[in-house]
Each structure stands twice: as C-alpha cells, then as structure tokens.
Amino acid sequence: MNFDLNEIRQQITQVDRSLLKLLSERHRLALDVARSKEITQKSLRDVEREQQLLRELVQFAENHHYQLEAQYITQIFQRIIEDSVLTQQVYLQKKLNQQREQNIHIAFLGKRGSYSHLAARNYATRYQEELVEISCDSFSQVFEQVQAGEADYGILPLENTTSGSINEVYDLLQHTELSLVGELAYPIKHCVLVNSQQNLTEIDTLYSHPQVIQQCSNFIRTLDRIHIEYCESSSHAMQLVASLNKPNIAALGNADGGNLYGLQVLKTDIANQQNNITRFIIVAKQPIVVAPQIHTKTLLLMTTNKQQVGSLVDALLVFKKHNINMTKLESRPIYGQTWDEMFYLEIDANINNPSVQIALEELRQYSNYLKILGCYPSEIVKPVDVT
User: Which helix (H) or strand (E) holds 109?
Assistant: First the structure.
C-alpha cells in the first residue's frame, strides 16, 4: 500500500472535487423541487420526509460498513437540507416579489468587519451577486438611510442567545414606518484581537461594543486591572486598536473583521456561551408578499387596555384558539406614558392566510392599538430531531 503523503493529498483533492460536483447537482435538483412546489403549493418543508431521509442515510452507511458515525452523517445532511430549503425559498420569493436583478444597497451598524456587516453580506449573497455597503454609526441611522431611500434594506440585530434582546432596536421599531421583510441568524464568535503577538497579561484596556462586552463578561472577569472602552461597534473598536497600535490594548470582535484591519487573534472562544448566535432582522420601505409554502413569521405591535383585568391574557388566548404559535413576547415602555407598556408579539403565521386574518380581527377586540410591523420569510431553518 502506498503511503506517500503527496499522493494521498491528491486523492483527497479529487474526492473533494467530486463531492462539490455532487453537491452542485443536488442544489440544482432543489430548484426543480421548488418549481414543482410552485405548482402544487406544497410546503417547502416536510419534516417527516426529512426525518425519514436522515434515518435511511444512517442505516445505508451502516449496512455498507462506511465507518461513519450517525451524528456526523446527520450534521452534514442537516446542513445540506438547510441549503435546499433556503434555495427553494429564495426562488419562490424572487418570483413572487419580482426582485430586481441588480446591485442592492444595505445599511448596517459599524464599519466593514462588524457582525452586522458580515450578516448583511450573508443575506445579500442569497439574493444578489453584488452588494453596495452603507456603514452607519447608530441603529437610528440605519432606519434613516432606508427611509430616505439611500439604502434598499437595513439590517439590525434584534436578539442574542447570550445577552438577550437589543432594546434600542425594539424601541426604534415603535416609531418607524418601515416594514420587516426578512430575518436570519448569524453565529457570533468573539475573540481578542491585537496588533502583535503580545501576552494577554500585557493587556490593560479592551475596546468593543457594549453588547460584545456583555457577551464576554465571564472572560473579562478573569483578567486583572482591565479598563473597558465602549465603542459604537466592534468594527470601530478594531479600527481604533489598529490605528493606535499599542501593545497594552485589544479589541473584542471577530477574526474575519480583525483580518481586515491587520489585527491578530490572541485568544478565541471567549463568549459566555459557545452557542452564541444573533438574530438579525431586515427592514425595507415596502412590505413584501410571502409565498404560502414558506415558513413565515409576523411581528405585531400592540397595546392593551390596562383598565381591563386580564386583557393581555385574553389577547394571547386568541392565538391558542386559532392554533397559531407565538414565538416571542417582548414588552417595552411607551415614552411619555408612565408605566404603560407596548407589546411585541411574534407569531408563526402568514397574514395572507384567511384564518390568520380572522385571528387578527379578533385580536383587535382586546387591543387599543395594533400594528403589523412585518410579515416575512424566516431564513432560520431549524434542524429536524431524529432521536
């Protein structure tokens, strides 16, 4: 048997290229599935079919003695299924909303390399080949850029698995006329970024956005005599640390962004939670229509009559009555009205569904104010459970 390393690597390269060709073919077939479901109006996801497929693949590998662990097979094909679902979703949405085939302008918080910037790129790649990037210094400026027509879309973080909801964004949603037109989840991988290979003990000042500082609070507590400098975004922090070029300072951000500014990674995996994910929303001037086959969410803004006992409970029971799943309930104060609350209700529902329209009409009976902030496709594809 030949154990020449160069030859083995050449064989691996050939196998990898064959895998790419097969993945491309599967991607093409996913589009054919979308065209079929466009006609039949069947849902994009068939959970039972996905579960059956994963079990059959694990069993097939076992029967043929492929020596591949079941978890390994499942994780790979769950990612492939996710790509198929999103590929079909983009196809249907483009057909339904007649999306323009040209450059799109997206506004985001921070400079190049911020998490919002990377999430914007992630969103744009599924719909367009080229992205015109508009960096903003604040969340409010993102809204303003879209409202003024300078940007087609704005991308904003709404919640994080470590630090929770981004209240400033929720508060801005109270006063905007923009519509939510999409959402996506982006993995957050914080690290310590420096100008040179100094030791962690030399660092006495950390620069980053308050959300990043909060998400890395456990790691920061392990450091001695650390001073925190808050910045408008993690990308601002990286740019500042790069320009100051001092051995005692560091930025907390992501490795890809740090690379743009010539920074080196000193330490990785510093977030409080390893599974650190931020959910971003996409806003635009005009609402969109969501294909009925797609997993759809709707965000509602509502106030209830606080003089009426149990008004919020009565409102929420409407969703149970109509078999609508509520995925989030968030309350925020109403400025200028002491102790009054505005409620954000997120539901798994398409407002174009007649049964959902009936539920919303009933909901109005228990609310003083009800506004639909957006009905949008979700790009968060939850993997099926095969246990």
Answer: strand 104-109
